[in-house]
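Researcher: Here's my situation. A collaborator sent me these components and asked whether they could plausibly form a single complex. I don't have experimental data yet, so a predicted model of the whole assembly would be a useful starting point for our discussion.
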Amino acid sequence: MQDNKPVASMRTAELVMAVLFLAFGALVMWDTRRLGVSWGDDGPQAGYFPFYIGLFIVVSSVANIFRAINLGEKGRKAFVEWGQLRMVLLVMIPTAVYVALIANPWFSLGIYVASAIYIAFFMWHLGKYGWAKIAPVSLGVVVFFFLMFEIWFKVPLPKGPVEAAIGFS
Amino acid sequence: MQEIQSLMGGFAVAMSWFNLALMLAGVTLGVLIGVLPGLGGANGVAILLPLTFSMSQQPGGATSAIILLSCIYWGALFGGAITSILFNIPGEPWSVATTFDGYPLAQKGRAGAALTAAFTSSFVGALVAVVLITFISPVIARFALQFGPPEFFSVYLLTFSAFVGMSKGAPFKTIAAMMTGFALAAVGIDTVTGQLRLTFGFTELLKGFDFLIAVIGLFGIGEILLTIEEGLEFRGAKAKLNMKVVLETWKELPKYWKTSIRSSAVGCMMGIVPGGATPASFMSYGLAKKMSRDGEEFGTGKVEGVVAPETAAHAAGTSALLPMLTLGVPGSPTAAVLLGGLLIWGLQPGPLLFVEKPDFVWGLIASMYLGNIVGLIVVLTCVPLFAAILRVPFSIIAPVILVICAIGAYTVHNSMFDVWLMMIFGILGYVFKKLDYPMAPLVLALVLGDRAEDAFRQSMLGPEGSLGVFFSNPLVGTITGVSLLLLFWPLISRAIAIARGRR
């Protein structure tokens, strides 16, 4: 796979986005049927405002779909290249894992330990740093946040077994 | 001159050591936020907002809290110029025009002059806007006291129509983004009937979408993803700023007084209109280029080419707070976040604020003067420090910023669901940016959605009870008329262009 090959063209991306908007607008309109979209005894019913919001989304998405079809030369440009997408995924996937590690039904690490692991992984994988640099940075940042939130500002964040071991829960 | 008296009272509130320390902290933090990729005025303030919850509970605390947050905003406005000039990376959209002449100046080795000019003209622009706020806002607030629901709805309509009429992009994209914001705002329990709207049986959606989460995701995560896609290189000019360069540049600056006045005027006018800071900076740069004697040399590194956009951007960024304070209608995403802060601290933004909480309002206005002076001093003395932060490799900065975003999203409601939501908004922000869907209308609609709907429903409850109420008196009729004109401006301007073409 070549890095500068496009994953999708601008036209495709525009179309997909407009269709997603269309679906969202339709969903909004569909839900308002249940609430009533007309005039009640005391002014508009609960669904009146959202109904027109949904309608506006649908109408403007249709306009955007037509616009995307007629994009011409600009539509053939790359929306994202494989190399770019790989970089984005290299950030998104670890970040998703990080959020999952903070709290999940099975084994929650808490935000501090998860953050330390996440920063360390990022530095190791993308920055190619050695552990002599990774350890002080990731631990230092996390200790600073711990002091700031738990001690100075008294804003409790999700905690896990390590914090429990030192008397914070 | 009642305003002067009120302002003096405001200075008395703002001048405590605690508040001055907050200003210094806020401005420093703000510059840092403005310099770092992925953190800007809007999401920086959004992340720090939860930290002010406990502060605002103390007497006078709400004033301190708004001083802290607004100073972060001033700092971020200053900080945007640093990255534009030294790294050719605009930290904020309205700093784009600053790169045109700022970066060439830095390449010529005159980074110090460019920075001094940028900071000083930012300061001048902000000062003009604050003076405007001091004298105009009480008048507008007094006038707006007579507003009923139809007037307020028409002002909301004007705000949102302005986005459609003034945006350079595709108008239907603006409408789609804006209406999505309204739809997301409607999610949850309907305030009037108590019915559930758009929740589809998910309990997490009962409390609706918080715009702070949207701001952190759209502007924070989205920005990081865009930066990472471009690769991780930062190549910057050296920044040295000593007193000699500052004084020399200050000697040069009075030459550009005409540009300053013009840019301040453009900035103030555009800032009151939503989304105005970015077009203001471009417009002011364009005007300066046209009207200056060395207009042809613009783009090769002229100090005047830095003065024009910076003055306008800062004036616009500051005057964006005017409609927020007087009408409760924010002019920019950051002003929207500040408005959200007021609501969280239990203050009702709008004309009544001037009557009910004069201490708060005038304390804030006085802090705008002081905060910008503090800001100027901080940026002039600490540029090398901030530039050094930019040299920290991206693979260290990026995860730390993502951690900060995650913590910020969590602290809004102490909910992990919000952190996941922030991720989704992040992907949305990335796609929005790539496809030229504007994000500011979405955020503003999310903030104002409920209030706009309430204003609409209350207008309908009145004796007239039909859409005619929005034309029922000259005032509301004018505002509605102007709104409709702006809304259909893309169509009208195209019609004019076609008509001209035929002739």
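Model: Some features of this prediction you could bring to your collaborator: Chain A has two domains: 6-81, 103-165. The CA atoms of residues 146 and 152 of chain A lie 9 Å apart.
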